[in-house]
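hey m, so remember when u said the tokens were messed up on ur end? i reran from scratch. heres the input so u can diff it against urs
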Amino acid sequence: MKILFLDVSEGVCFKELFQCLKEVSGYLGLPEYNNPRMILSEICRIGYHIYSTPIPVKAKLAKFFENSRIKVIMDENSSNDEESIKILADFVKGELDIPIQVDKVFTFGRVTAVLGLAGEEDRVVIVETKVDDVSGEVIAYAVEKLLNTALDVELIPATGKKGRPSFVLRVIANSKDAERVANAVMRETGSIGVRIIPVRRLKSPRKIEILKVKLSREYNVRVKLSGVNLKPEFEDVKVIANEEGISLPEAYRKVYSALSSLNSKR
């Protein structure tokens, strides 16, 4: 993920912001624009995510930050100019809380801009509960149902009250699905309460490529590429095993053999 981080000191003015962003724009090879808003729009267009330090503002200017993710500090002595505040409120995603690899640093007056790279990230929730009074069949059915909505489901052996054996049912879901997944957990397990924990998830860049595997006929196998790792899609390998009348391990060996030739061409 490409990052533009802005360190905006107290008293920043429109001219300083503009000049600093002009240097960033020139470094990125972008066309010349006559105001910071157009420069930031173009930087966003080419895939950058913009973050900032918390910005000191007077209370009367806080209205510009309604429904934005940027953090502000209430300071009636703040001298940041109004136009710069409006621009930052429109483009900044919030405070940077992930490590980045720094590419280039630009400074003009009281504005410092840092270009860098970070791992892909998103926000998910962990929905979990402990169960100790349901059968294995019920838990297995709950897991099957939850996988229709959740990103992942896992069962962790645990010890409950009075030494009873139990499981922690842990579900990872998109934030927007948190309540629906929590209700499903309670409905399917009989639990009277669940924990919903918001978390930040970093992901390495990944993509899907189609690998052609020729056996008795040609098969298309989806392959997930992430860094140096290549992983064939299980469902596609299972099709090969069933249609060729071979075991799943043998099907994997044939797919990985084809993968080695694909990897040598990368």
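this time it looks ok to me. Residues 206-264 form one domain. if urs says something different then somethings off w ur setup not the seq
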